[in-house]
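Assemble and predict.
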Amino acid sequence: MQPARSRARREALFGYAMIALSLVVVFVFTAAPIVGSFVLALFKWDAISSPQFIGLDNFEALLQDKTITHSLLVTAGLAVMIVFLQVALGLWLALLVARRASAIVRNLFRAAFFLPMLASAASISIVMTYVFNDHFGVINYYLGALHLPTVPWLSSAGGATATIVLVAVWQQLGFTFILFVAALGSLPQDVLEAAQIDGASSARLFRQIKLPLISPTVLFACTVGLINTMQLFDQPYVMTKGGPGEATYTTVLVVYQTAFQNLQFGYASAMSVLLFAVLLVITAVQFTVSRKWVFYS
Amino acid sequence: MSTNLFTEPLSRRGLLKAGAASAVLAGLTGCSSNSASPSGPKTLNVAVFTDQASANKLTKAAGTFEAAHPGVKVKFTGTTGTDWNDFFSKLLTQIAAGNAPDIAAVATEGLQLFAAKELAEPLDDYVKRDASELKSYFADVHPALVEAMMYQGHLYELPSDFNAGNMFYSTSLLSSVGVERPADNWTKDDFYDIARKVSAKGNNVVGWNWVVRLWGSWTSWMYANGGNLLTEGKYDGGDWLWNTFYPNDPAAAGRKGGWQWGDPTANSTPVVEALDFMIQLQKEGLSPTPDVGGGGTLQGLFASNKIGMAIGGGFWAGGLHNAGMAPGSFDVQYFPKWKSQRHLFGAGGYGILKSSKNKDLAWEFLKTLVTPKNMDLLSPGNVTTFPRKSMMTAQRYASTGPKNWQVFYDTLTKFDDTAPIPAPPYYNAMAIALNKRTTQAMSTGDAKSALDGLQSDLESAAKTS
């Protein structure tokens, strides 16, 4: 018994040694900053002077802050539009590719749709700023050449919102597309064939067989998409600076400016805690509601 | 006796040893990045607002200093950003992380921010000590620029460059509508008339274009209309400087211890009128929607001869030349008169960080940076206006233009109410609010509502700071 226990302990120690580096990385770069944010939210700190403990004052100030409330609404609006389009378009494209294309074409499409995801959001946003520029952007250039009215893409509230949504959807579409291609590819063929033999139309096959079977993937895409887009930063920071006015002023942009430009690190941490709470609630609601429509076979 | 990690199980002692070794290694690595032997060479770290490739070229300006101080190296580190507030936020983060440079390039925009946070060292004692050495420098520099570098009676920087908001114009576009050159005392109406005629040419040509920022934006119209975003005042003090270096200079009369920016006045009538004018120009198609940021894109557009007029300072001369414009294809005039012909300006300089362990050495280096030779090395090719009037010569502008280069410096002497941009200690929050509310006004067409919002933003920022 003794040698066996000792051996098990040695194996366990070896296991811990193997994951020690990962644990350190997770602790230093994820866990510690999270805990730090919660603690910092109770302080007033400009990163230069000594931090001053102020209890819940930052959270009280948040309740009066119209900017953060507005930014949460803006972010939620953008997130809903982006996630809806990403999921709907990703699923539609995956269905098209799965149904009609050969393996080569399927792989080609997979690569093509996934490619934008490999570029950094910041560099894509810089390019898109030029593409959508009101005055000399390529889109307005062609609209003008076709004698169509030009669009104030980045200088009107509606235009800027639409542009941010378009760019974010275009860049992230590959993720949902790949998810749905994989989900559709793993559907049980016998069930599909049985439905087809029973005379189910394509629409009915999709609505009553495929969609329920891939509903866990839909839930995953919605959840991950929502969490990501609620943290939208690169596109509005680079393309619109949150404008015009506050039309694309997302919460993370407000947090960044509050912390790193206004040097209110405590208050920015309180904002982050608020965003964390909002995301937690949204995700919990998603999972609760999902019990009614997600089918786990 | 060696152990093989992959074939032999790890003992608890072994694990602890490995952990301790890792910690020591990490500690050593951490130390090595910042260590310097006390007897080894000293390095003066200088933070500048540019890319690293350009920063490397600045080392030429340290040649004489390094030769005079054996064992001392000067290292310029470039940091990029969309505008000064972006640069300052990165620099402040660097300082907060305990990695402060000895010297930092800080323009008017950030002078009070750094001084109020007690990050910058006042230069008073150094300047008093080396007064005789600095007499020729101050005799050559307009007192308005020196006053802009003061805060609460103390001098924080020696101006090394400046730019006043003048009006650049395309000579060919203005000539094509029958205007050879606007008069020195031209008015807002003259400007409007020219902008209308140039825009009527079509083919994507506009009479006027601008960028959203604090310097050289619609804020120039605000100054000309007698308005400001903040109440203007002056700090007491500074007599020691004025009495020492400018005792009989009429341009120094009334100068005090730096600009004191008081309560916000962002929704006052002259300010609203100025922004309304921008909206009017956009609605009438005389100007496109402005970009937010430093103005690099605007210079590029101007160089493509699609813009009749744009606000620019001396730095535009080199910028337009580098963008391919030939001397003679553009020129510069004073900003037009509205209620007055008051101009705004921003000045640049280098400040010593309070945290520096080499302050005396840093001061010796700062003095060398304001010599004509080093100013030339720091800003080659007319990419700024020099604060030393003796450096403003026809020969300097012969290869780049503009023909009327005297406008750059004469703005200070001709219009004695010319003042720095309003940059209080909460400049970063102000810049964000100004950009946000300006774009709001331009997209909604409602200047008053946007400026009411700006007023509220500035009140909140002033209170928080």
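The mean pLDDT of chain A is 91.
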